């Protein structure tokens, strides 16, 4: 469909005009069809699986059990632990990342405006494979020869088991996640700050507004759409945390770091119960969509 | 942010505090990366040294030899590369077309709004949720342990992202240039191809970079879909060296460091597009 070639005047012309008239649908069609196949089909299939009891033996037929798999959610202690752990992780990690990322972006924007190189260095963690990040932190947290306990020792503090300690395991995971993802918030905030208009600040200066007032009354409202996008993307990703937990703690000790993704993985593959895993997955999907939609409406991210 | 000017000494003090904070952030950011690199050049015995060796005293390439000659890490890296490039080409091609359509055309029955929102919402589906049906689907079509299966699965979450980014780029471009091209005799498709697409090149670059990084790093789906060396990607190869009984720290460090290097080099080459890309694209929704 090159447009003006001479050959298109004959038979091709009719076809081409047809394509041209329907261009709005033809350009949208591949993406919509691929996404329909890759999301609607799995969702329906998942719903179908969730109301069945599926034997690990593929030769046995699926047995219809109605809402039984969903009912199990209410009495499953491990599921409730996973739900609580995911909630704790999401709230704490995303809040810390947001505060650190915004703070750093404000500092750099004020004091080192032109140093693109420095900014890129600060963004390295978010580009690394999460699996490499998980293993690096495993090495740092290692109780016997890990470098963190060496630093604790030099500071005269007692060594800890970190990822292996009941009370510190979730903290250890949060620290690693904050290390990897604060740069993401930082990058978005820097981009937002770079596009702030100058005039309102000049007016505020003339009115004698303090820098604190300028921050609350000008910077934060201007940044609001960027902040909303950053939080939305981070929360969506935090809800599906897997790699760090899989490598650092495997969900332990005592289920303290068992998060929803890891639990679904265990139910489906270790306990070989795909029907129940599908029910939990649907629950997670439901919560994610309700939370994101509510948030996007609230922040007016969709018209 | 432009703060009110204060007394000179107070300004200097603030500036020093700011530089101090940034310095600490730099050290905290870089230390783990340095640490994995340092360990990759140490003999096992030195990795376990107490107190730790801050700088490898006795550097060796033994772990690189193990990872890349004795073990199939090159194969894993090649698989990762092919899967990442395949996913990126598909996602960016169709995402750009759909993004353009959603930015420029009008549809009956508020389609534009509904389709945009629906495409965005497919990005919310956590991968673990689609894994069971995808697994059964790939099993049924005999696609388990293939790179094609990984490309299909990754397209599911990169395509909505690409569509969404490109839509906001095209919305930022003035429509008049395309109208002028059509007045000059170009077709609608031609105007897209010859006028809009070249103008959106920075956005295209940023979108492709993010798709590449996401697919190069993905772990969970690859863990479940691939079990053979012929199809496994680098993250799976690395995780495979953490076994029930022992963890091959040296080898993992060497492979982990090598997995980071291309991404970091790439990031420095394209840093301009990265910041500009996000500041234009993702921010506006």
From TrEMBL, chain A:
Compartments (UniProt record): Cell membrane
CDD domains tied to this protein: TM_PBP2 (cd06261)
Keywords annotated in UniProt: Cell membrane, Membrane, Plasmid, Transmembrane, Transmembrane helix, Transport
Keyword Transmembrane: yes
Membrane topology: Multi-pass membrane protein
Boundaries of every ABC transmembrane type-1 domain copy: 83-295
Coiled-coil zones: none
Lineage: Bacteria, Pseudomonadati, Pseudomonadota, Alphaproteobacteria, Hyphomicrobiales
Major localisation: membrane
InterPro entries: MetI-like, MetI-like_sf
Transmembrane regions listed in the UniProt entry: 25-48, 87-108, 120-140, 168-194, 215-236, 276-296
GO biological process, one term: transmembrane transport
Family from the record: Belongs to the binding-protein-dependent transport system permease family.
GO cellular component, one term: plasma membrane
Name of the protein: Maltose/maltodextrin ABC transporter, permease protein MalF
């Amino acid at each position: 469909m090159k447009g003006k070639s001479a050959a298109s005047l004959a038979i091709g012309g009719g076809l081409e005009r047809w394509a041209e008239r329907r261009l709005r649908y033809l350009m949208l069609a591949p993406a919509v069809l691929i996404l329909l196949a890759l999301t609607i089909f799995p969702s329906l299939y998942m719903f179908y699986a969730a109301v069945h009891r599926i034997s690990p033996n593929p030769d046995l037929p699926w047995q219809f059990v109605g809402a039984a798999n969903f009912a199990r959610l209410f009495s499953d202690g491990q599921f409730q632990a996973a739900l609580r752990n995911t909630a704790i992780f999401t709230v704490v990690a995303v809040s810390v990342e947001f505060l650190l990322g915004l703070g750093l972006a404000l500092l750099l924007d004020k004091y080192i405006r032109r140093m693109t190189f420095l900014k890129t260095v600060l963004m390295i963690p978010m580009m690394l494979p999460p699996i490499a990040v998980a293993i690096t932190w495993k090495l740092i947290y290692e109780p016997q020869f890990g470098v963190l306990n060496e630093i604790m020792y030099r500071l005269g503090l007692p060594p800890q088991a970190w990822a292996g300690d009941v009370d510190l395991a979730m903290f250890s995971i949060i620290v690693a996640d904050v290390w990897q993802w604060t740069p993401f918030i930082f990058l978005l905030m820097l981009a937002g700050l770079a596009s702030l208009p100058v005039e309102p600040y000049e007016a505020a200066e003339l009115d004698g507004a303090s820098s604190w007032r300028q921050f609350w009354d000008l910077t934060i409202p201007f940044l609001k759409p960027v902040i909303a996008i950053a939080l939305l993307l981070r929360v969506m990703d935090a809800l599906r945390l897997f790699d760090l937990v899989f490598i650092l703690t495997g969900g332990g000790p005592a289920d303290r770091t068992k998060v929803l993704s890891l639990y679904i993985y265990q139910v489906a593959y270790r306990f070989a119960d795909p029907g129940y895993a599908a029910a939990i997955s649907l629950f997670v999907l439901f919560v994610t969509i309700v939370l994101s939609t509510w948030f996007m409406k609230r922040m007016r991210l969709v018209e | 942010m432009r703060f009110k000017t204060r007394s000179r000494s107070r300004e200097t003090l603030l500036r020093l505090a700011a530089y101090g904070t940034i310095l600490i952030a730099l050290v905290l950011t870089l230390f783990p990366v340095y640490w994995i690199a340092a360990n990759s050049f140490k003999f096992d015995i030195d990795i376990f040294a107490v107190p730790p060796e801050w700088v490898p005293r006795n550097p060796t390439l033994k772990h690189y030899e193990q990872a890349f000659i004795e073990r199939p890490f090159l194969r894993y890296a090649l698989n990762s590369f092919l899967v990442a490039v395949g996913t990126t080409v598909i996602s960016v091609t169709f995402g750009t077309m759909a993004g353009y359509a959603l930015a420029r055309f009008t549809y009956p029955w508020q389609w534009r709004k509904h389709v945009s929102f629906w495409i965005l919402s497919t990005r919310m589906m956590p991968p673990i949720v689609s894994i069971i049906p995808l697994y059964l689907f790939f099993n049924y079509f005999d696609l388990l342990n293939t790179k094609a299966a990984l490309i299909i699965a990754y397209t599911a979450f990169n395509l909505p992202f690409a569509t969404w980014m490109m839509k906001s780029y095209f919305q930022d471009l003035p429509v008049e240039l395309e109208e002028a091209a059509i007045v000059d005799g170009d077709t609608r498709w031609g105007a897209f191809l010859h006028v809009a697409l070249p103008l959106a090149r920075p956005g295209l670059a940023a979108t492709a970079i993010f798709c590449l990084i996401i697919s190069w790093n993905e772990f969970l789906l690859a863990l479940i879909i691939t079990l053979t060396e012929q199809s496994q990607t680098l993250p799976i190869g690395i995780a495979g060296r953490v076994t029930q009984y022992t963890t091959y720290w040296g080898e993992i460090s060497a492979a982990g460091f090598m997995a980071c290097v291309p991404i970091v080099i790439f990031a420095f080459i394209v840093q301009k597009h990265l910041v500009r890309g996000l500041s234009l694209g993702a921010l506006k929704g």
